[in-house]
Structure formats: C-alpha cells, structure tokens
Design goal:
With about 210 residues, this protein is an alpha/beta fold. Helices cover about 20% and strands about 20% of the residues. The protein has a six-stranded parallel β-sheet with strand order 5-2-1-6-7-8. The structure holds pyrazine-2-carboxylic acid (VGL) and zinc ion.
Length: about 210
C-alpha cells in the first residue's frame, strides 16, 4: 500500500500568502498528478490558533524570522500564518482536494509548534497520521509540498523513522530558504535519515 502525503499546500505558503514560499504554487499541478501513482492521498494542514506562540506578533520584543524559543525549544518567529478558519489556512484552490481521504491538522496547540505531520516539535504528542498509515497497511509514502526546509523535511524524516519507505518528490516541493543553503541542507538531512529523494518524472503511475 502506497500513500501520498501532501504537506501544507495552503494559501499562506503560496505567492500572496502571509508566509509565501517562492514559487510555492508550482507544486500544485505536480501534486495532483502524483495522486494517480498511489493508493491513498492524505494531507497535513498547518492550523494555528491566533494566539500561537510561533508568531512574532505573540512574542513582544521579537522580530520577524528571529530565532527565539517556545516552551524550551528553539523557535523561528514567524509571521501570523495559517490561522484556523481563515483563507490563508485553506488548501490552494488548484489542489484536487476531493481525492484527499483524510486531513491531519497540526500546530493547534498554542504552546508548541509542529513542523512534522506526525509529531509536534517536542515529540510530545502524535497527530494520528502514523497510526492511521499503519492501520491502513501503508508501507511506502511519497511526500511533497511546502516548505522543503521545515514541514516537508520534518515529515519525511519522521516517516522514515517510523519505518515507512519514504520517497521525497523534490520537484513537488519548495522551500522558505531564509539562508541560500537551507533547502540543500534539508535534502541532505532527509537523505541521511534514509529518505529517497527523487523527481516526479520517475514516479510510476499506480
Ligand atoms: C511551515 C513554518 C511555519 C511549513 C509551517 O509548512 O513548512 N513553516 N509553519
Ligand atoms: Zn506554522
């Protein structure tokens, strides 16, 4: 059983959004095509309350994109993004959402951030995605979405750590790239954790 995990393909991470990733919307048509290559499609959705501790606006004295801390963990101070029930938190309108079987929200606890679709950043709580995949008999996951250097990276590394054969579809991902090396370093970290990095052209149709 093969699953596709769509990571955070949301308006706020696309051009015009609050935390726009350059060319973020370019992943949408590729993600739609990848749906044909798998048995089941899942999505993660960054889904923050307005008082989320990762927002610079909720950390007086901190500047945007500074490295601060949140509950004892290092925390980038993000612009307000993916606030629950706002348009920015919705999936990109071009994404073929009717083919998504289940959505796993993350980042809902104001006191901790959650980059991975499997666990929060302190690995304190699971989202249920890992158990769901195992219960469904999934052995291989394809991963794509936004952003390569944050949520895609964390999701792929956790998937590999949970024992899934994990394939990152590189051309179906885009990164924040605060530093020019961030995306390349993220790909290297994923590979070092056992993730296979490939392009959509090499993914076989199901
Ligand atoms: C993400 C920063 C903050 C992501 C989410 O989806 O990669 N990045 N929240
Ligand atoms: Zn977020």
């Amino acid at each position: 059983m093969k699953a596709l995990i769509l990571v955070d393909i949301q308006n706020d991470f696309c051009p015009g959004g609050a935390l726009a990733v350059a060319d973020g919307d370019a992943v949408v048509p590729i993600a739609n095509r990848l749906m044909d290559a798998v048995d089941v499609v899942l999505a993660t959705q960054d889904w923050h309350p307005a008082n989320h501790g990762s927002f610079a606006s909720n950390n007086p004295g901190r500047k945007l994109f500074d490295l601060g801390d949140l509950g004892g963990l290092p925390q980038v101070m993000w612009p307000d993004h993916c606030v629950q029930w706002t348009g920015g938190a919705q999936f990109h309108p071009g994404l073929d959402t009717k083919r998504i079987t289940r959505v796993f929200p993350k980042g809902t606890d104001a006191t901790i951030d959650s980059y991975s679709g499997f666990f929060d950043n302190g690995k304190r709580k699971a989202t249920g995605l890992g158990h769901w995949l195992k219960a469904m008999g999934v052995t291989e996951v394809l991963i794509c979405g936004l952003a390569t250097d944050y949520c895609v990276k964390a999701t792929a590394i956790d998937a590999a750590g949970l024992g899934f054969r994990t394939v990152l579809v590189e051309d179906a991902c885009r990164g924040v790239g605060m530093k020019s090396t961030d995306v390349l370093n993220a790909l290297a970290a994923m590979r070092a954790s056992g993730v296979v990095v490939t392009t959509s052209h090499t993914v076989q149709r199901g």
